Amino acid sequence: MVPKIMLDMVLGQLSMLREQIAKLQETIEKLAEDNRRKDAIIEEKNQIILNANRARFGQSSEQRKYVLSDGQLSMFEIAGDGNTETTEKPAENPKTVKIAEHERKAKRTMAEFAASLRVKEEIVDLPEAEKFNAQGEPLKCIGKVEVRSEIIREPENVYLRKYYILSYADPRAEAETGEADIKQAKAPTPLIPHSYASASAVTDVYIKKYADALPLYRQEQIWKRLGVDLNRGTLANWVITTADMYLKFIWKKMKEILLMLPVIHADETVLQVNKEPGRTPQQESRIWAYSSSKRAKHQIRLFQYEMSRKGACATNFLEGFKGILQSDGYSGYGVIGEIIRAGCWAHMRRKWLEAMPKGATVENSKAAKGYEFCGRIFDVERKLEDFPDAERAAKRQELIKPIIDEYYTWIETIFKPSGKLKEAVTYAVNQKEFLCTFLYHGEVEASNNQVENAQRGVVVGRKNWLFCDTPKGAEASVIAYSILETAKANGLNPEKYLLHIFTVLPDRFAKDPKADIEDLLPWNEEIMELCKLGV
Asked: What are the residue boundaries of the structural domains of the chain, listed by start?
């Protein structure tokens, strides 16, 4: 028999061991959980670094050459509906190298390249002394031969225009009454009262800044080289004043028309404004962008400056709109009432791209598989582009809906995703309702690229001029971008269009500040003929 004291000691030691084992197991589980959390953080950081390198060094487009499959250039470059045919391969010459078949755009001829340019002939003649034969008789010209063509760019021509008005008196009236009946010619209304600004000079400032992304301080240097001492403050005042006096009325008219359309695209981007009341220069403001759809009769691109990204900004702008709003997944658009929301498959595709590791294939990466699903949707969508709205919606339900159903069934199989993969899955699940809207509305596109493309000018310009100094400058800038981007979207030369506006409106508004401006909208037939590109 084991003494009771020894038995109690053994039992006590066993109890202590159990407690120690339990604590150790608890510690092991805690450490394992810490390791899993740290692994997730490391993976997320690696994905951030990968996306940063991809953005800096990789291709700028989202074409599917990102996703590779063993032995193939791209697993999505299968023509037609995916069916392939095998044919007998011809005998290969070991001294030859096979080149992949591809299409190349034909080179333009000189006639196509410079079709819109006026032609000035330069006749190269013999010296007078060589126009005679050995007997002193004059030679006979038998024709001319074209040897080459050159594009000539002459320096800018800047001069000062002075207006003088002529005065006329009636001699008879003066002789009979002793008072002269004087008549004077009426000078054109100035673009800006008491200013040297002309329609052509102000148009040049707008085009250089908002179409060519040239900051005002660089324009100041250009003017000085031309012999004109115009400082950037003066140039900024020209823009702010003319935007308020003329362009904002066209902006408002285009907004009225935009809100009556069945589909509007929306997006927003960052803007820094230095002298906002009650805010520091470091606080970010926003440029909100709105666009008509690709199928709209009138192409409209409108921008609005706001101090915040709150959904109320979009709500205020879109007051009265009751159609379909297409946007990214930003929740701020969810507060707008009486609209149907449509999502963006290009954003969905981008989420998968950001989650894709280097060398991803559909065999080893869930992100690559999600990316492939999006590619399949866009492949079908391209084939339906020219279909009427109702027919396109029916075809989408027949051809694209099964792909989307398969896509969401597959998403349910992804177990405990982390990092960027989790973001992509969450986006797909939360945006499902909006991503499916386009299936039932043929007038809606599969992506929000329409408005994102419209913002390119703003983004490129911002990289050069960096910020707006004042809220008034920001408001003038968004009006300028609206006019110029809408002009480009309607196939106009933005410089000719802006010059026409600044030439016509001063006299018109001088006669009637509420004069009609319908004839100055970019899709007016006379405007399209007068301001079309290449003329």
From this structure: 201-337+471-535, 344-447
